[in-house]
Amino acid sequence: MSLKVVGAGVGRTGTNSLKVALEQLLGGPCHHMFEIVTHPAQMPEWTNAIEGGSVDWSTMPLGYVALVDWPGASFWPELSAANPEALVLLSLRDPESWYRVELDLSSVRRRTSRDETLVRDDARASERSLQ
Question: In the 8-state DSSP scheme, what is residue 9?
Answer without folding.
Answer: P
